[in-house]
Write a sequence for this structure.
């Protein structure tokens, strides 16, 4: 099959035929052939080294790119986590706002109930004060009446 080794074996065959025809030039041709063969081997080795070096550099670059990609993924996840935290905090704030509104409503209701109770108690106190005044006035009239009766009896007793 065609390739560098196949070409070299073909060149050797041709050199064999040439050496038969031109035996005096054969050592020079063989030296050239050896030099070509040596240069081909050197070139193959250089090619392998260059490929190895390029592969190594590509691997290093790929590792760096992979590392940067992983760092970006981590940053992306951190951003998503921060967004989730913010959403939770907003939700918690909304719940707190709702709870505050409910507490305000309950406070107003309690305030209303307390004010109503206070008004009712004030009404009861006012009625008790009025009743006490009425009872006191009635007691004073009764005392005055009794005093008048006592005075009348006292005069009667003195007059006797």
């Amino acid at each position: 099959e065609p390739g560098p080794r196949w070409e070299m074996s073909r060149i050797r065959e041709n050199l064999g035929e040439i050496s038969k025809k031109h035996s005096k030039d054969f050592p020079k041709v063989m030296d050239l052939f050896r030099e070509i063969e040596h240069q081909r081997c050197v070139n193959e080795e250089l090619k392998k080294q260059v490929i190895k070096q390029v592969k190594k550099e590509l691997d290093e670059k790929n590792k760096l790119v992979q590392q940067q990609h992983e760092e970006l993924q981590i940053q992306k996840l951190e951003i998503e986590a921060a967004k989730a935290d913010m959403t939770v905090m907003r939700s918690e704030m909304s719940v707190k706002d709702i709870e505050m509104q409910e507490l305000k409503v309950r406070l107003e209701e309690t305030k209303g109930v307390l004010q109503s109770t206070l008004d009712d108690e004030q009404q009861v106190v006012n009625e008790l004060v009025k009743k006490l005044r009425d009872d006191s006035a009635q007691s004073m009239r009764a005392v005055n009446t009794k005093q008048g009766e006592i005075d009348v009896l006292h005069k009667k007793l003195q007059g006797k």
